[in-house]
Amino acid sequence: SRNDSYSVYIIDWLMPDMNGVEVARRIRKETGEDVPIIVLTAYDWEDIEEEARQAGVTAFCAKPLFMSELGRCLRSIIEKETDSAPAGAPQQHHTGRILLAEDNELNWEVARELLSILELELDWAENGQICVDMVEASQPGTYKAVLMDIRMQKVSGLDASKQIMKEYPEARILLLTTFADDEYIVKALKYGVKGYLLKQDYQSILPAIRAVYTGQTVFGTEIISKIPQLLHEKKTFDWKAYDISEKELHVISLVAEGYSNKEIAERLFLSEGTVRNYISGILDKIGLRDRTQLAVYYLKAMR
Fold this sequence. Notes:
Shape: elongated
Radius of gyration: 25 Å
Distance between the termini: 44 Å
Oligomer: single chain
Helix content: 40-55%
Structural class: alpha/beta
Strand content: 5-15%
């Protein structure tokens, strides 16, 4: 079968030259049985259902297409896969709230339909900053998991995750994205999120949420394959990526060597207050808590 990245095919029934059922038959021949195929139609599909099923069509969705309808269709596919689990497999039932940070309203509607399978209350944050604000305004333990889109306007999912994990290191954040970007993965690991998953791997999203919900760490197959290489790559550390100036880097190096604020001030001809301000600003830029973390971070970066 072909090694493409599509997790689901959505095909119109009536198309020029070749109808959707024939297209489905040819796709199924190329891809095998694993990938769902959905046929869209504005007509009663009972007349074509038998032929379509034989061709490999998984489900039908009515036109005109609404995102909520598509969400229900995808949900029906996932529920069938869940029902096909081995007999006697334990059924997990959870209670609590999940917070979804997603700046696309249509994506939110689809996610709401899919996540309703978990029978959990779902809150929506329209961007990263709103997500941070909602977490800060909530009581500890209110959100059993936070699902975070990475690319959002105003504040990205990574920046929001950094802020949340700094204040609430016990938070359970699952990052969702369409990009297996190396820089994103490294930052996600550094911030301590509980998971990183590609949206295309929709069949893994619900199991991943269940795992993160219970405190486990989950990374998608494609992400896991990248981690060993990323952790062992030898690169010159890019301090400019954190907006660290040469003066600030000098301060960091002296902290790592064990100098006190007074000693650093004497060496750099600064006041102790200025040194404290430098260090406070550096900690905020890098997302660290104290001088010890800063020293360890510097020594690791300079290896």
